[in-house]
Design a protein that fits this description.
Blueprint (H helix, E strand, L loop, with lengths): L4 H15 L5 H6 L1 H7 L2 H8 L12 E3 L6 H6 L2 H24 L5 H20 L2 H10 L16 E3 L2 H24 L4
Antiparallel strand pairs: 1-2
Helix pairs in contact: 1-8, 4-7, 4-9, 6-7, 6-9
């Protein structure tokens, strides 16, 4: 069952207003430029050059799986793909939070805090009930709460530049493909 653009916008407007959401979910779903602006990975990589005390992280961070085999990706249920992305974001937030506890206040701590906040913002948006309603409308036959499991083992690193590159790939790759499916309702 397809959801019309006007119904999508109405759902997003009502839920955003009722819940006091500061992020415009309709813009997130329908505007590539807005999603691109929200992705702070490259900005953080630039800022990292000013942090001389951050050559290596004090703990290892799990990297998201970013490779996409198009046929496999498209054949899997939407909810499974969403769950993988959310689990990668949860892992990143938790691992960065743990690393932040081990660095002294200053440039490194600030940079890690910004990364944690940016990844957490994506989590909040993707788990917002308005997004859930839209997904249920577009994929009504799928289970709404799939188990959060990762098919492939996570690679870990203490190299912040690598973490930021993988974070960027997750957002501009897997997440963007997923949102593109929801964009079919935007006009």
């Amino acid at each position: 069952m397809a959801i019309s653009s006007s119904l999508l916008q109405l759902l997003v407007l009502v839920a955003s207003t009722a819940c006091g959401v500061h992020t415009n979910l309709s813009t997130f779903l329908c505007d590539w430029d807005a999603r691109n602006d929200m992705n702070q990975a490259e900005s953080l990589r630039t800022s990292m050059k000013d942090c001389s005390d951050l050559s290596r992280l004090p703990s290892r961070i799990r990297l998201p799986v970013t490779k996409i085999q198009k046929a496999d990706w498209q054949s899997r249920p939407f909810q499974d793909r969403m769950a993988e992305i959310l689990q990668s974001l949860r892992n990143l937030v938790q691992d960065v939070k743990d690393a932040r506890k081990l660095v002294q206040a200053g440039c490194s701590s600030s940079l890690l805090e910004r990364l944690e906040h940016n990844a957490n913002s994506y989590q909040v948006i993707l788990t917002h009930r308005t997004i859930t309603v839209v997904i249920q409308q577009l994929h009504p036959t799928e289970v709404t709460s799939p188990p959060l499991t990762q098919k492939e083992p996570y690679e870990e690193t203490d190299d912040l530049d690598k973490v930021l590159r993988y974070f960027h790939k997750l957002l501009s790759g897997r997440l963007e493909w997923l949102i593109t499916e929801l964009n079919l309702s935007c006009s």
